[in-house]
Amino acid sequence: MAENISVDVSRLDGGGPPEPAPRTRNTCPSCNSHYREDEMVANLRVCTNCGHHFPVTARERIVQLADEGSFTEIARSLHSDDPLEFADSKPYPERLRVAERTTGLRDAAIAGSCEIGGTATALVVLDFSFLGGSMGSVVGEKVARAADLAVEQRLPLVSVSASGGARMQEGVLALMQMAKTVSAVDELREAGRPFVSVLVHPTTGGVAASYAALGDLIIAEPGALLSFSGPRVVKQTTGEDLPDDFGLAESNFRHGHVDLIVPRPELRDAVARSLALLTGGQPYRPPVLVGDLDPVGALTRAMSGMRRRISDMNPFRNGDAGDD
């Protein structure tokens, strides 16, 4: 949605230095490199100059991970209710409506089945742009249904988590999702199905303290904040100075909480290879990239295909979608 731009002309008479230009979504916060949207999509929203990983929506993440045309969504029509009639600066139902309009999602998770590198897989992805990826009743239910699908169809489960924790507007009902999702992972393990948990920036609170920490293999993106509480809160609570990398993926890897740190351009191959090993399937062989005689045309076609695949997953594109 376009925003109104106000211009302050009071400084044009030499009264002071001009205000710095506002930072755009495609300006790297680490090195100030600028990117066009097509470049961002082609680079999987990773800065090619310094490696900074920009946020990725749930639909983009599915397009990046799943084999083309293989994803089938489940529990698509689930949406949150307001059993506590919660209101802070605005009522909870209004917050939900705004989040739905701005993201095109019904809640902060998308679940379904797909193939990753040829391995049939149950997949659940959280979207931080929907109320901070917070885990309420719907998110917990979708994680549980993805785990149930993996058990019923003898599939591995892959989750991609990006969350600020439990959804405070649902109170104790949100906290109950921690136990619910952990129980779902226990049933998955009893059924002998592998679970690969991918942690991206940020994964905190009740999500970090529940199912996301229970993967047979835990993979993180570089520089992701992965902790129950952020460093500012921990420092205020303990009154002690913290390491510069407190809570980051690199610190978690050093202390054994994370098994692998994988840059986003290599993530799909890493997940596909892991699934092949954990399921005893055929060894995964990454596709061989062949140079295109028309690189501009190749990029244009890739961009068009990715936009189409992301758009196809929008439940509001053609009105309300039915459940699975």
Q: Supply the helix-strand structural class.
A: alpha/beta
Major beta-sheet overview: 8 strands, mixed
Count of all domains: 2
Give the CATH class of the largest domain. Alpha Beta
Quick check: average pLDDT?
87
Using the alpha-carbon principal axes, give the shape: globular
Q: In sequence order, what are the helices and strands, one letter per element?
A: HHEHEEHEHEHEEHHEHH
CATH topology of the largest domain: 2-enoyl-CoA Hydratase, Chain A, domain 1
The CATH architecture term of the largest domain is: Alpha-Beta Complex
CATH homologous superfamily heading of the largest domain: 2-enoyl-CoA Hydratase, Chain A, domain 1
Distance between the termini: 31 Å
Q: Considering DSSP H and I runs of 4 or more, what fraction of the residues is helical?
A: 25-40%
Strand content: 5-15%
Task: Give a brief rundown of this model.
With 324 residues, the chain is an alpha/beta fold.
Question: How would you portray this structure in words?
Answer:
The chain is globular, with a radius of gyration of 21 Å. The chain contains ten helices and eight strands. It folds into two domains: 25-54, no CATH class; 55-283, 2-enoyl-CoA Hydratase, Chain A, domain 1 (Alpha-Beta Complex), CATH 3.90.226. Strands 1, 2, 3, 4, 5, 6, 7 and 8 form an eight-stranded mixed beta sheet that branches. The protein has 324 residues and is of the alpha/beta class.
